[in-house]
Every structure is written in C-alpha cells, then in structure tokens.
Specification:
The structure holds two protein chains of two kinds. By secondary structure, chain A is an alpha+beta fold. Chain A has two domains: 63 residues, no CATH class; 75 residues, Alpha-Beta Plaits, CATH 3.30.70.100. Chain A is globular, with a radius of gyration of 17 Å. By secondary structure, chain B is mainly β. Chain B has one domain: monomeric porin ompg (Porin). Chain B has a twelve-stranded antiparallel β-barrel with strand order 1-2-3-5-6-7-8-9-10-11-12-13. In chain B, strand 10 and strand 11 form a beta hairpin. The radius of gyration of chain B is 18 Å and the shape is globular. The termini of chain B are far apart. Classes of the chains: A alpha+beta, B mainly beta. Chains A and B meet through helix 4 of A and strand 5 of B.
Amino acid sequence: MRLLSIDLMNPMVLLVLGVFVSGCTTSATSTRDAADADASGSLSPQNCTVCAARGVSAPGHTAQVHDTSDVATVSSTGICCPMCGTHAQKRLGKLDGVEWVDVNLHTGDVFVGLDPETPRPAAAALQEEIRKSGFTPGAVTLPESEPQR
Amino acid sequence: MAGATRLLLVVLGLVGAGPGGRAAAQQATNVPAALQPGEGSLVYRPLASYFRLDGNGPSGAVDMAVQSHALAYGLTHKLTAVAEVPLIYVNTPGTEDVGVGDIDLTLQWRWFVDDPAPLQTRRVVLIGGVEVPSFDDGFSSESLDPFFGVSATWIHSRHAINAAAVWQFNTRGGGAGPVLGFSESDAEALAIDAAYLYRVDPASFADGGQTSTFFQAQLLGRYETHGDTQLIFAPGIIHNGLTWAVEGAVQVPLAQDLDHRAELVWGINFGFRLLY
C-alpha cells in the first residue's frame, strides 16, 4: 500500500507511525490509572484524557503537556470545519496562562490547556475569545484546582 | 466592436467571475459566503484561473490566465476587510498582453448569525465596496465603481448552501466602463450566485479529523442592464486543513445571451487559502 509515494508497509515508516501514536498512549499511562486500561491491559488513545478530549488517536502534542496542564472546556456552536476551529485556537492561544487549545468539531467543545503555575483566564475571557473568533460560546467548565502562584 | 475593446470586456468580465474575494474557510470558490476570518486573523487567497473564450468574435479565440491575490482581515468578529488584485495574461491570435486589473476593496459586515448546534450555522453578511481602477491600459475600467450586496450561508453538518447577490454601479456612464466585470457601456450589473457544498470526507468528526474535503456545485448568474445575461455551472473540490485549503473548479456555461463580449467556452480555477 502506497500513499503519496510513502510505502506504508516500510518498516521505517511503521516505526515512525508507531512512535507518533505511542506518544499518546504513553501520556495516557501518565495521566490515567490502571482502571482505564482495556480488557487486554493496554491503554488506548481514548483512555488518555487529552486525546479523548480531542477525539483523535494520534495527537501531535507531548506527554509533558498532558502532565502539566489543567483543562478548561468551553462549549461552543458554529464551528463547522477544521480551519474554523483554528480561528478559535489562535485567539485563545494568545491568552496568558493558556498552553494549548484543541477543538472537538463533533461536540463543539473547545479544550483549553492551562498552565498550572499561571493565573488562569476567567471564564468570561474564554467566552469572549470564542466570540471574537466568530462563533457562539456556551458554558465554561474550569478545572477545580487553583493555579500555583 | 473593436477587437481591443472586446478583449478588454472579456478580460474584465472573467476576472469578475473569478475569485469572489471574500476569503474564508468553508466557502465555494466563486461564490461569496457569509463566513469571515476571526478578529485579528488574516487569510491570503491566491487563485489561478484559465479561460477559453469563443473564436467567433472579431478577436478570434482568446486564452486568458488570471492570477488573483486576495487578502481578508478580520477587523472585528463582525467586520472583515478584503483587498483583491488580479494579474491578467491574455493571448489572442497575434497578440499577447499582461496587465493589472481593477482592484476590489470590500467591507463585509455580519448582520445575522445563528449557531444552533455544533457543525451548524446560519449567517448573513452585507457586502459593500468599490472597484478601484488600476489604469492599466486594456485591463482597467478606468472608473471607480461601487458595489453592494448580501450573502447568506447555511451549514448543517455535511451540507452547506451559499447564496449571494451583488449589484455593481457604473460611474463612467456612457463610456467604456466594464461593470462587475462583464461588459462595457453604461450598463450596471447584477451577480446572483449560489453554491451547494457537500462534505465528502470525513462523514463525521466523531472520530476526530483535522482535514475535510468538500464537493461544490456552483451556479454563477450575471445580468447586465443592457440585456446581456449569462449562467455558468462551476463544480469543484475544496480540501482544507487547520490553516490551509486547496480548491479547484471548472466553469461551463449553461446559457449565454451576450451581445457585448465574447462567450465563455470553459474555464478552470485552482487556488489556495492560507490562514495566518
């Protein structure tokens, strides 16, 4: 099987893909307990908090992000394509204390990774950035823990 | 009609039928959509077009390539500014020429929005702007022509519909000022466009996905006050990722009643959208 001149059965390609995917499962191990493991005892990408939040199986972020971020969730409507989601990501990503932003197009949830050591933005600020991105914000769920000062 | 004048009309007409200019992520290639960049976001949209026009006119067969460059910037979440500059190459039997077409400066204001659910939206924008003459001989109307209109977009999961109507004035009155890009004289022009987009892939974002592919079917209608009318069918594909999109369409005339310019045989568009 070939895709864009890449031999998908090439061992080196498989290795690269494996490393890419394993980055997610490794982070799952660090963020979830053993109860999240499936019947076979291994962790799937869906067991990882952030990967599950993203709704993807091969994220491009690192385990360190998973371990250090608190996650706020902003419900939103009107985001209709990946590029639309990027508008929201760009604006939210400029706020102080925001480490990363992911958008689940299917649910409309926007996940905001917050730096635990920085005062986090208020819920209203997160909603305003969604609005300025051109979409309609809904409820905001903030992490319970207070940021370290 | 002199050959050179007729060529000018052809050039300006098809430039008008080209990019649309209101750059946004999920809009058809040639139809303005009620979708705008976020506040502070910039979208660069180059679009290359190639047109073949009929060989029955006094100019003979005309081959034309247009490279249009559009920049759309979100001034606020409701107001977008767009600038669009077309670079034009034309080739008729025995002649070749390159020039800069008139520049479109547009403001697009969001008048209505309703986002009832994820992957659903209904929006209406008001469009106003002016076509600034480039004064490039043979490629410019040499008149400052305002235009205004409205565009509506409806998106429901995999389906999207865009519809737009834009009226362009001709301030040159009685001269050879082409309007909305379609012909000369003192005529003013109405563009009525519609597009249906279907998300071919992914069928659902439930399993994630950072790209999407749309099929588009566009109808581009033109009416000019001196009686010329034209209806073009333009199907195509749009594939977009997180910060980019690539798009392509073909243009085929469905009906043409043109007395002031050459008829379209076929055309193609190919372009990108880059979000900064």
